[in-house]
Amino acid sequence: MDTDKKTQVLREGFLVKRGHVVHSWKARWFVLMPDTCPFLEFENRPLVFKLQSANGVDHYLEACTREERDDWAADISAAADNLQTAGDENMTNKQGEAGPCLQNIDLSKVLDSMYDIHSGIRMSNHVEQGSTYRNCFSGERLKHPVFLNIHVPMNRAEAVTLATALLEEGFLRTVGLKSMEALRTAGLSEQFMDDSTALYGFSDSLKKRGSVKAETSQSALELSGKVVKRGYLLKQGHRRKNWKVRLFVLRSDPAFLHYYNPTKDDISPVGGFSLRGCLVSSLEDNGVPSGVKGNMQGNLFKIITQSDTRYFIQAPTHQEKMGWIDAIKEQT
Predict the structure, then answer these.
(1) Whole-model pTM?
(2) Could you write out the three-class secondary structure of 132-164?
(3) What is the pLDDT of residues 139-177, one digit of tens each?
(4) Which option is the CATH number for 100-206: 1.20.120.350, 1.10.10.10, 1.10.357.10, 3.40.50.10540?
């Protein structure tokens, strides 16, 4: 994330962005340049602000603190004031525009249609590179009526966008190497492959109707401490070893570090641990430490809990990394 840039950068960091097609929230890395579109306030959520581009497209962005929201807003407003013309939109994180027929689609209703025993998507066994995968379907099933005739007819490109939203929300999962590689390397709007050899299945937590993914219960005591620090960091998963943006909240008395899915809320953490007896250390950026996989951006640090569980975390900048390490050490 601390890379040299040929163009002027006013501010950069994680924000949570509301999608145009399906109005869900996704964590994205944003870069503010001098030719960014105007800033308008958005009153419905306290940490959200709205950008309106010259062609009238609204972009809803959520910061992790009021201070960060105000800093982004001030810098964006200053950049907008310096514009000579309103025609140059150069948002780094701009997504492709989708047809109006995809607005406000209820993904749960799409899932109900996919599950339907009579008219839903039929699951079968597929072979990829000599391996047999059971209970899955190919990306070519986008021509199935469940995608093409939801609310209003849509074309294949819009169906890909809808299927990508299902994949991003965790309702679908990749099966086999081809679809997994596409998810890793494709653009934001092309993660689902319209291909007969790309395989997909339903999420394990959604295979049974009405099933709800179990959430880790957190005691009221460990969430009762005073908030010392909060911010967006990248965390490596324990099983899949992939990196996801998480909202981290550090509390004292009692000392706990919790992390949340920033696209959901900051009320129910998806994980957390006591800082009693924890060890926290900075890791060098030259080389990949043992136990770390996937896309390394740098500014890495490690936390080892009292039960010997290891957490690998990346901060956006070296300064933020050291700030988190110092804050955590004060609580251990």
Answers:
(1) 0.52
(2) EEEEEEEHHHHHCHHHHCCCCCCCHHHHHHHHH
(3) 887 666 666 555 555 677 777 888 888 887 778 888 888
(4) 1.10.10.10
